[in-house]
Amino acid sequence: MLCKTASISLHYIRYKETSVIARFFTESFGLQSFVINGVRSAKSKISPSLLQPLSLCELVQYHDEKKDLNRLKEIRPDHVLKSIPFFPGKAAIAMFVAEFLGKILNEGQANDSLFVMVKEWILELDQKEKHYDSMHIALVWNSLAPLGISPNDWRDILPAGIVPNEEQTAGIQSFFNWIEHGGESVLISGAMKQWILDLLIHYVRTHMEGMGNLQSLTVLRQVFS
After folding, report:
1. Alpha-carbon distances, residue 3 vs 59, 72, 111, 194, 213 (angstroms)
2. Which pLDDT does position 194 carry in this prediction?
3. Within 10 A of 106 (CB to CB), how many other CB atoms are there?
4. pTM
5. Which three-class secondary structure string do you get for the chain?
6. What are phi and psi of 69, to 5 degrees?
């Protein structure tokens, strides 16, 4: 069946001499993997930029629910990213978010609310010139509701037995107040932001099977240290 769907590029690996296996978060079918033939050849009509993390694309695909790997008839840009691939901080955030999505999504299961939220977040990240270094943490928090694992408040993300000190309590309260009410930036340290992100990842890992480790965290921490 031939279908058209909006999509967000997550990751690709090389396959044979000139092809790749690419993963996309699609609006219609959730996480999907595709064999894309000839994309690494000099004559390819597909721009490699469409396969970079968080590229917004429109796919025309041959969809078969019985197959793990589908094939594309066409891929074209939905929105050309102007800054995310070219700024180290934004590129590191994109790598992390793409890996995070690849871990939490299920093959073939659409999540419309999460897709719309992530797409709007990508457009905002691409537009921002500064104060974007906490956006990925806010995205992880905001993704909990469409994933069906939303806590009652921030205290529920604390591991059993962990009692934050006064500095940590003030920092995490400031962070979630910023998420709720907005503003240019949240005035807490980089170390505090990393601690909050670690808490969120631990929370997701305890509520979702097979998440495993996130390799992109190392790069992310190096960029924002």
Report:
1. 8, 10, 17, 40, 33
2. 94
3. 11
4. 0.93
5. CEEEEEEEEEEEEEECCCEEEEEEEECCCEEEEEEECCCCCCCCCCCHHHHCCCCEEEEEEECCCCCCEEEEEEEEEEECCCCCCCCHHHHHHHHHHHHHHHHHCCECCCCHHHHHHHHHHHHHHHHCCCCCCCHHHHHHHHHHHHHCCCCCCHHHHCCCCCCCCHHHHHHHHHHHHHHHHCCCCCCCCHHHHHHHHHHHHHHHHHHCCCCCCCCHHHHHHHHHC
6. -115, 120
**Do 6 and 78 form a contact (C-beta atoms < 8 A)?**
yes
Nearest to residue 133, comparing CAs of 78, 96, 173? 96
Residue that has been written with the tokens 């962070």 in this structure: 175
What tokens were used for 213? 């480790």
Whole-angstrom CA distances from 23 to 18, 112, 113, 180, 212 are: 17, 17, 19, 32, 18
What pLDDT, in 10s, does the model give residues 157-206? 999 888 899 999 999 999 999 988 877 778 889 999 999 999 999 999 99
Tokens of 96: 């992390």
- Residue 15 amino acid letter: Y
Structural domains of the chain, with CATH:
2-79 (2.40.50.140), 88-224 (1.20.1440)
